[in-house]
Amino acid sequence: MKIRKLLRILHRDFGYFIVGMTVVYSLSGIYLNHRHDFNPDYKIFVEDFQSEFQNKNNLTEIEVKEILQTLDHKVVYKKHYLNNQGIVKVFISNGEIAIDPKTGGGTMHYLRKRPVIFEMNKLHTATLGTVWKWVSDLMAVILLFVAVSGVFILKGKRGFNRWGWWLTIVGIIVPLAFVLIFL
Questions:
Q1: Burial of residue 150 (number of CB atoms within 10 Å: 0-12, 13-18, 19+)
Q2: Mind listing the pLDDT tens digit for each residue in 29-65?
Q3: 9, CA 20 to 30 Å: which among 66, 69, 95, 169?
Q4: 22, 15 contact by CB (below 8 A)
């Protein structure tokens, strides 16, 4: 069997194998690229509420826990304190709550994982353990093989020798230019 035919077969089969993983990596890569614009893993929710405790200077731990039980969400109390403005700050497992003990009004800020996106980002950053790190490395090797073998598959007017090497050089220059300019 000729090498070009073998490369074409392997390129095709490995290409099919990595399509799904490439889609996941591409989508999560877009989210991770914009992590300075928004949190790609969590969405922040803000909810206002009114408690029955009013006209007080401070709230005890028992009173704070009673307020938390009235909220629609299952929140886990960690601790609380009274700040300089007289607002009770309550730390919960996935956020924080501010309660005005004089009015009984409060605001809860809490985080929720973005469904599917959170998991995709964990895969992308290879933070799921040693096994996934090796699967991720295998995908990188296969992508490298598909990229390099693709160079040798086409021949003729649009093949690497006449057309492809120009685009390959441009593909190398673009990231190098960003490194040289911005680092």
A1: middle
A2: 999 899 899 889 999 999 999 988 777 777 888 888 8
A3: 169
A4: no
What is the distance between the alpha carbons of residues 140 and 106, in angstroms, rounded to a whole number? 49
**Tens digit of each residue's pLDDT (9 = 90 or more) over 98-128:** 999 888 899 999 999 999 999 888 888 888 8
Count other C-beta atoms under 10 Å from residue 167's C-beta.
10
Structure tokens at 57: 């200077």
Domains in the chain: boundaries: 3-39+116-182, 42-113
pLDDT band at 83 (very low <50, low <70, confident <90, very high): very high
Would you tell me the crossing angle of helices 3-33 and 130-153 to the nearest 10 degrees?
130
Residue reference for tokens 């009274």? 82
**Strand 105-113, strand 77-82: pairing:** unpaired
For 25, the 3-state DSSP assignment is: helix
Residue 174 CB contacts under 8 Å (≥ 6 apart), including other chains = none
Distance CA 70, CA 64 (A): 10
